[in-house]
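Cross-check.
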Amino acid sequence: MNAADDAERAAINQELKEVYASLSDAEKAEFNAQLQAFLAKEMGRIKSDYESVKGGLGDAGQ
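Predicted model, tokenized:
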């Protein structure tokens, strides 16, 4: 999340909580499934980026 400060981050989090609370159970299930898929994809991307940087740093130090 690209919040400028803690207050903005808190406001965004509150808005997301309110939107989520307004969803039906079926919509919450779909939201959760999509969120899990997104997080898995992003974690894979971050891991790949980290390993690329870590590998590059390891080579430079040798």
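Helices lie at 6-22, 25-60. The chain is about 85% helix and 0% strand. Passed to J.P. for a second look.
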